[in-house]
């Protein structure tokens, strides 16, 4: 969401952020929040992203700013969208506004990283997430799994809740076939108040059926497959074709881009995570380390990310890496 504040004589007189899709933009909400509109012509507006200049779901914000004759506008980033891309800045300048671009640019880029990745790289912002045992395994060996088919929880309840918060913040969540076969996850947001992400499932041969939670059509779901026979498709589920004999991560990115997905959490399994790492198609990795020890089993992914932050969550350690 874009953020905006309006300042008069060093005092904030208005502020706003973008409403959900189709609602008013940040600048509109900020201007609406100003009680004395006569102050606007002597005020300064600060906004994280260039005001729009075209009619979409809402009228152009640049026109509204010009209408109220704000004297000065500071913009964090020029909007890379081809419908804006400097046109909003030119509209403001033509209306007599003094415009400065690039204020706190790095902070604004970090704030808008999902949108910018989608627009500039033509793919979603990709977050890899996994939990490993204290001795570096995602799961115990197959023999132990066959004795007890229930999921082996590595992290504590607080970490689990944090993961559900993350799900509410991203547009999609992705897993491979084996993760569904072994754990039958729902991939929904349950331990946090928020919207469930779009579920993206890799299922080359359509091994999964409606007995699995991810295909219950309760949440928008996209299945990536090689099966072209539409008679095998489940009603209420979207399907997209990819070639599993070729590098997969870029194909996944292309398919999600076509579905207008601008961020995705990749939750597993190991092969799926490593696919994104090997193709260098990831932006952030969030790795939990629990206190349990498996001694042997499925190794955690290997990556070359730069450690950005490390946090202790009771018995768990959360490390966040960025792909620089």
TrEMBL record:
GO terms for molecular function: 5-amino-6-(5-phosphoribosylamino)uracil reductase activity; diaminohydroxyphosphoribosylaminopyrimidine deaminase activity; zinc ion binding. GO terms for biological process: riboflavin biosynthetic process. Keywords: Hydrolase, Metal-binding, Multifunctional enzyme, NADP, Oxidoreductase, Riboflavin biosynthesis, Zinc. Its cofactor is Zn(2+). Pfam families: dCMP_cyt_deam_1 (PF00383), RibD_C (PF01872). Signal peptide: none annotated. NADP(+) binds at residues 131, 153, 179. InterPro entries: APOBEC/CMP_deaminase_Zn-bd, CMP_dCMP_dom, Cytidine_deaminase-like, DHFR-like_dom_sf, Eubact_RibD, RibDG_C, Riboflavin_Biosynth_HTPR. Binds 1 zinc ion. It comes from the Bacteria. The active site is at 27 (proton donor). Zn(2+) binds at residues 25, 52, 61. Substrate binds at residues 167, 183, 187, 190, 267. Residues 1-100 form the CMP/dCMP-type deaminase domain. The keyword Cell cycle does not apply. Pathway: Cofactor biosynthesis; riboflavin biosynthesis; 5-amino-6-(D-ribitylamino)uracil from GTP: step 3/4; Cofactor biosynthesis; riboflavin biosynthesis; 5-amino-6-(D-ribitylamino)uracil from GTP: step 2/4. Its EC number is 3.5.4.26, 1.1.1.193. Converts 2,5-diamino-6-(ribosylamino)-4(3h)-pyrimidinone 5'-phosphate into 5-amino-6-(ribosylamino)-2,4(1h,3h)-pyrimidinedione 5'-phosphate. In the N-terminal section; belongs to the cytidine and deoxycytidylate deaminase family. This is Riboflavin biosynthesis protein RibD. It comes from Flagellimonas marinaquae.
